[in-house]
Amino acid sequence: MPEFLSELLNQNEIFTATTVMHYWGGLTTTVQLVFLSLVIGLLMAVPLAILRTVRNPFVSGPVWLYTYLFRGTPLLIQLYIIYYGIGQIEGIQETFWWDIFRDPFYPALLAFTLNTAAYTTEIIRGALMATPPGEVEAAKAYGMSWALRMRRIILPSAFRRAIQAYSNEVIFMLHASAIASVVTIVDLTGAARDIYSRFYAPFTAFIAVALIYMALTFLIVYAFRRLERHLLKHQSPLNQ
Amino acid sequence: MLDFHGYGPELLRGAIVTTELAFAALALALAIGLLGASAKLSGSRSARGVATFYTTVIRGIPDLVMMMLFYYGGQVLMNQLSDYLYYNHGIDFFVQFDPFMSGVLTIGLIFGAYMTETFRGAFLAVPTGQIEAGRAYGMNRLQVFCRIMFPQMLRHALPGIGNNWQVLLKTTALVSVIGLSDMVRIAEQASKAEHAPFKFFIPVAVMYLSLTAITELAIKCLNRRANAGVVGGI
């Protein structure tokens, strides 16, 4: 941190260089947690959504059950089950998995990923179901195989339809990640809780962090609006 | 048979606390939603501005952060108010800010913002001709609202209210973090004491699933009543 900045900060009672760095650490943890869970969740959701649209109930049924369970229960419960439950699995403490899952970051990442994958699966499924039949028929008439059709026609068209709902899911995930602080992770909310308890200044600690979350939210909204405008260019009015 | 190590009755009591909290927050959210929607649709610029500011801010802040702000901050404010009143006016007034109250307040405020949008859309879906017809019959504004706007708005708002309710119910789990003895907190304490997380959290998860399933049925029934006489396409 530059000299003049830390000097300025040290005149402040609560926002000293130490607390600002604490918030910064929390911000990086939150961003890592949310970004990783969203990326892995999206990668999981695409094949799951395709499986969910298959007519055979033995294929689509398990996916339905997974999304039903993860969308029907609070994320906090899922986090608790994974966080407290992993240590209870017999024999895990002897394997290398224990070294990974002893750090609360990874159980939280797992819970968030499974949760967002469930929601995203349903979003993409809705978009897949809404594919105009004409597009599929046209692809078939061109002699495209199932995989080629999926890759060239159905998925790109579904992504365009899903993007609006998905941006809500991203914001939801950012906000939901605040509960990571419950399992001792020092994310943004965790940092605010530390600072609150050190200075007993609830307004300063929590309003500051609320503003950071708000800035992140608006950043996401802006980025998605740009992306939407790019992807849906063919639908925008000509004289614009 | 399921063995809850004697935590069974307490878990059940926690489930009742969760339900009470959810319904209290729903009532507050519906009230705020109606108010907010009226403000957004009113002719007053300042009312529209306040309502827009409220819904924007609420959607930018995580529920947990707001809950902590209200719970920890509310107590500090309350103490200051109490001191001020006592020293300057001699009034002995004090309210303990408990987690239940903060939970109802926060969840009510958050979902009030979502309900505002739901109600706004629903009010806009009532055809203007009907309102004009009501006015032409000589009904005053209140009568038009009670007899024409409200019943028809409800039809459009119910699906949205149903969705918000499902999310609200799951959000109540967060109140356990600020110390309310709802079923999540009791399950957490029990699972720590007994080293059996699955045994306590899975029943709680099932409880949430069944609460959503039951209320979904109730909303379906309400929906059928609100839509009586509407000729549907499907």
UniProtKB/TrEMBL annotation, chain A:
One of its GO terms (molecular function) is transmembrane transporter activity. Keywords: Amino-acid transport, Cell inner membrane, Cell membrane, Membrane, Transmembrane, Transmembrane helix, Transport. It is found in: Cell inner membrane; Cell membrane. Residues 27-224 form the ABC transmembrane type-1 domain. GO terms for biological process: amino acid transport. It is a multi-pass membrane protein. InterPro entries: AA_ABC_transptr_permease_3TM, ArtM/GltK/GlnP/TcyL/YhdX-like, MetI-like, MetI-like_sf. GO terms for cellular component: ATP-binding cassette (ABC) transporter complex. The chain crosses the membrane at residues 31-51, 63-85, 105-124, 170-191, 203-224. The keyword GTP-binding does not apply. The keyword Membrane applies. Belongs to the binding-protein-dependent transport system permease family. HisMQ subfamily. PANTHER family: ARGININE ABC TRANSPORTER PERMEASE PROTEIN ARTM, MEMBRANE COMPONENT OF AMINO ACID ABC TRANSPORTER. This is Arginine ABC transporter permease protein ArtM.
